[in-house]
Amino acid sequence: MYSGKNKSITNILKIISQDRERSNILRKQEQKALTFLVQRIPYWITSDMLTVIGFSGSIIVLSGFVLAAYFGKSYLLFGVLGYIISWFGDSLDGRVAYYRKQPRKWYGFVLDVTVDWLGVILMGLGFVIYVSSAYKIIGFLFVVLYGWEILTAQLRYKITGKYSIDSGLLGPTEVRIIISLILVSEVLLDGSIIYLSGIACVVLFIANILDTRKLLNAADIRDKEEKQSLKDGAHCLKEQRI
Known about the structure:
242 residues; mainly alpha
């Protein structure tokens, strides 16, 4: 086990949360869980290995959809397992790196965004394989809308300098839980996945619209600040010449 696991919980939480802001509903419970887990991950398990573990969860989700399409909807429950594994790897890869004081901020940023996007694509692909042709568009819409949210997070980081993976009260953890509940619901009530997924897409669309409006306001404020800064600089330069 990692030798620094006796550090105080407050100090560990500060270390593993230093590069991002969270606003999701379950942030307190999630942060406590991550604080507990980072101290107990064997040192031979690297951040890259955790990323692979997380991505394997996405593959399990896809496999669950495919198996459900050909052998019975009960296989959708593999998707629930897949999302648990996805959360474990995706949530811990960067946190473990910071806990061990081995962060690779920009490497991790690129890898995290890329793997998240591939995971969303696999989930959408699984949905398309499982449902009938008339409703395949819902899987496509989910991929597009979630991709929009990922893009918004990157633009927010560029404009404000603050990296947040949450859309208000909903973050990746809440999304995984919601999708898992949809999968369980489909197993218990055939056809419910269509309606619940449609509702999820509508909610995601509204969240994206609201986030984009906030981002545009932030961008406008930054434009005005930069223009004012240029004016002030030009004024100071003029006074120096005088």
